[in-house]
Every structure is written in structure tokens, then in C-alpha cells.
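Usage

Read records sequentially. Each one opens with the input sequence:
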Amino acid sequence: MFVVGNTLQAFAMVLNSVLEIYFWIVFVRVLISWVNPDPYNPIVQFLRRATDPLLNRVRRVIPPIGGLDFGALAVLLGIKFLQISVVGSLMQYARHMG
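and closes with the structure output:
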């Protein structure tokens, strides 16, 4: 059973890393949106391509209010929620299996 527990723990660690990286990509995108970035800059283009699909869906539900984008805040909080609840639960379950 320890093999399954170790595999589950490895999956949880990879998921946590992916969520952490995406958190920082969204965070940098939010910071860059406060200035007037060059739309032809490859970094800006990457940030937009990486975040627009999710942010656009969330913005349909939570539109910007008074120029503040609460959709991005919801995404950042959602990522942290997933890290705490899903990754934490997976890690705890993996520990009990091993």
C-alpha cells in the first residue's frame, strides 16, 4: 500500500507546484495590468495567453467594479483554497496509506 501512498503524495506535490506557479503567473499579470504594458512584449503575451481563458470566465460571473478586477482576486483565492483543501487532503490521505 505504501507505493500507492507515495504515488499519491508525489501527485499532491506536483499539483501543489503547478498551482503555486499559476498563482504567481496570475499575480504578475495583475501587477502588470496596473501599468501600461507593451502588448507586443513576449512576456506580456505569455501572461495574457496563460491567464485570459480562466480570468475571462471568472469575469463573466464577477465583473470589474469601479475599475477593480475582483475576478483576479477570486482566482488567486481559489488557487490558495485548492492548495489548502485538495492538496492538503491528498497529502494527509497519502500519509495514512503509508
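Summary fields computed downstream for this record:
- The mean pLDDT is 94.
- The radius of gyration is 17 Å.
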